[in-house]
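User: Show me a protein chain along with its predicted structure.
Assistant: Here is one chain, sequence first, then C-alpha cells.
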Amino acid sequence: MSIQQPAVNRGIVKQVLSGDAVVIRGQPKGGPPPERTVCFSNIQAPKVARRANPNVEGSAETRDEPFAWEARELLRKKLIGREVVFTVEYKAPGTGREYGCVYLGKDMSGENMTEMMINTGLVEVRRGGLKTDDPGQQKLVQLEEAAKTAGKGKWASDVNVNDHIRDNKWTLENPRNFVDSHHNKPLNAVIEHVRDGCTVRAFILPSFHYVTVMISGIKCPMFKQDDEGKQVAEPFAEEAKFFTESRLLQRDVKIILEGVSNQNLLGTVIHPNGNIGELLLKEGFARCVDWSMGVVSQGPEKLRAAEKMAKEKKLRIWKDYKPSASTIDHKDKNYSGKVIEVVNGDALVVRLGENSFKKIFLASIRPPRISQESGDSAPTRDANKRIRPLYDIPYMYEAREFLRKKLIGKKVTVEVDYVQPPNQGFPEKTCCTVTIGGINVAEALVSKGLASFHLCKVLCVVYSGIECPRASRPGPGGTTIPAEPYGEEAHLLTKELCLQREVAVEVEAIDKGGNFIGWLFVDNTNLSHSLVEAGLAKVHFTAERSSHYKTLLAAQEKAKEQKLQIWSTYVEPKPVEIVEEPMERKVNHRSVIVTEVVSDDLKFYVQFVENGPQLDQLMEQLHKEMECNPPLPGAYTPTKGELCAARFSQDKQWYRGKIEKIEGSKVTVMFIDYGNKETMTSKDLAALPLCFRSLAPQATPYTLACILLPNDEDARQDALEALYNDILNKQLLLNVEYKGSPDHVTLADPDSKDDVGQALTAEGLVLVEQRKEKRLAKLVSDYSKAQDKAKSERRNIWCYGDFTEDDAKEFGYQR
C-alpha cells in the first residue's frame, strides 16, 4: 500500500505574519487571486506584538515576545514577493489554518524555510507531536540542538531579552508635531497594511511609530458602506488596492511626511521603483485632488502629468473620459505673435504663423460697459437705432485706441491663463496675459482708468483657530437655513471689519474644498482674535500649533468672564469625580430561575425567585380575565413595539407579550416574562388590559462572563446544547460581574457552588476571555486553569491540540 504524498502548491508570498507563518497568494482565476495562510509545521516562533482594537471590548495591546521581530523580519526579507512552493500536511478544524512546509523557488529542491528558521536559533521545535521514525522530523531536532550548541539567536548565553523587544508606539499624541519634526525628510518604513489604493499603515523605523499615511495629492476609488452596513467597492477600488498592495505590502520604502488630515498623516511613499502615487495616476487607478496637492513636496507637476497621460489613454477610471470643450488645446501655453487687430477694449487678434490667427482676450479685467446697477443706458438719438458699443459705451473707444496705438503691428508675448467656456450664447474665450517689452498690457489699461480689475475666481479663506456660529444661508429648493445663535452678529462683525478692506492673509493649509485655511489681518489686527474677544467665536483645538494660541485663549477667558454673546449663559463645568475601579470582586448572589436560552449565543433569560409570588398572582388573574372575557378573533390589530396578550401554542394559555416583527399575516411576539419568542397570527393576539401592564417584565437577559464561544459551527452548537442542558428551568445563583448589553454574570449551583462557566471551560466546550479588570483576575485565573486542563486532556475543541497558540487574529481566528 503506497503512502499518498501531500499535494504541491505554488504561489507568491504576500505577507509574513510571524517567524512561522506566511500568507501566500495563488494564481488569479478570473477574479482576485486566492490567498492561503500557511503555518510551518512542528515549530513555534515568538509571538509578534499586537495593538489593541478600539472596536472590540476588552481588546488589549500586547508586546513582542523576545526575538519575535527578528524572526519575522528575517522571513520577510527572505520571502516577500518571492515565488514559493508549499505542501499542506493538515488543516486545523475551525480555524482554516493550514500547516505544512514552504520551499523557496519553483520546486521542492529549494531552501526549506522551516529548517532555515530553526538553524538561525529564532524558533523552537514543537517536540510533542514528532515521530521518532520520521527522519525529516528528527532532522529538525538535530538542527535545533546544533543552534543551541552554537549559541545562535535566542539560545545565546549572554543575551539580554529586553534588547530584543520592540517599543511600539501605536498612537501619535500630536500628529502635527510629529510631521513637523520630520518634514520633508525621507523616513525608512515598512508597510504593514494597505487599506485602499491610496492609504497605508506603516512602521516608521527605527522608532517603531505606527502611522496611517494618506498619499498626498491623489485619491483612489474607495470602499464604502451601504445602508445595510455592507462594504461596497467603487469601480476599480479592488484593482487599485491590489496594485498598491502587490507593490508595497511589507516592502521597505521611504515615506516623506508632508501634512496632517485629522489623525491621519499625508505623505509621499517612495518604493525603490518609484513614487507609488505617480504610478497609480499613470495607470488610471487614481485622480489628482487639489485639497492635498498643496503639500506635495516631490513636484505636483509630475502627478498632474501622470494623470494627463492616463486620461489620454482612457485607462481604468478614465475609460469614459471626454476632454472638456474648454480645455486648452494649444501645443504650448506660452507663445509670441504679431497683433494685427484690436477688436475692442479687451480683445485682440494675433497672427501666430503665415496663415494662423488667434483671437484672445485680456485676462482678469473688465472693459468699459453700461452700468445696469446705476440705471445708465446707452445714449441714443433714436429708439430704433442699433447700439454701437465701440462708440456708444463711454470710454470703450478710448480703450480700443489706447491698445491700437500701443500694440498694432507689434510683437507681443502671450501666456494663456484660462479658457472661459461658452455662456449665455457667447462663444468660448481664451483669456491671456499679454506683455510687450516687459509691460503687462492689462495692467497698463487699468492704470489709465480704461478697464477695471475683475477676479474670475474669488479667494475663499477659512479662519484658522476658531469655531464660529453660522449666519442664515440659502438651502435646497429655495429654502433658507436659519442662523445659529449669534451667527448673524458674528457675520455682521466680520463684514464690518474686513469688507472691501485691504487685508493680509497668512495661509496654513488647503481644505478638501480647495479653500485656504489661515489667518486674516486687517490693519495688523487678527480677525480670529477679534471674533473671540467679542464673544462670537470659540478657540478651536487646531490653534494649539500656532503662535496665536495663547492670545486667543486669553481673549476667550476674558469673554467668558464678561459673559459676552455665546458665553452669556456659560456655566463653568464642575470637576468630574473619577471613580476608581474596585480592586476586589463583589459577590452579591441572587436566586434565579433560567427560563430561556437563546439558540445562537450565550444569552439567556432569568426570573428572580423573590418576584415569583407576584408573577404567579398576575398570571392567574390574566388567565381568569381572558377566560371570562375571551377576545374576538381578528379584532386586534398588532403594532410593532406594543404590549399585548398572546396565546402560547403549547398550553393555549394567555401571557404578556411584546410585538417584535410583523411580516404579512405573521407576527413575532416575545413573551416578556419568560424570554421566549413565537410567530403566530393575529387571531392569537389580543389587547392587554391596563391593569396587567404595571408589573415590569420579569424576564431579564444576561450572558456568561469571561466566556467566548468557539468559531467552528459544530463546536458552537455543542457548547450551546451543553449550556441549555445545564441551566434551563433550573434554580441557580447569579452574580453580576460587569456591565454590558446585556450584563455579564456568573451562574453557580446553589448547593455545590459549582460555577457553570468554569464547568463548560473544563469540558473544553468554550474559551476563556482574558479580561483585564483587576477585580476579575482571580475569576479569569480559575477559568484559565480549567481551560489548561481541558487542553492537556484534549477535550472537545482541544482534541487536535492548542489551535490558539499562534498569533490568533493574524491567522484569521477571531474569538
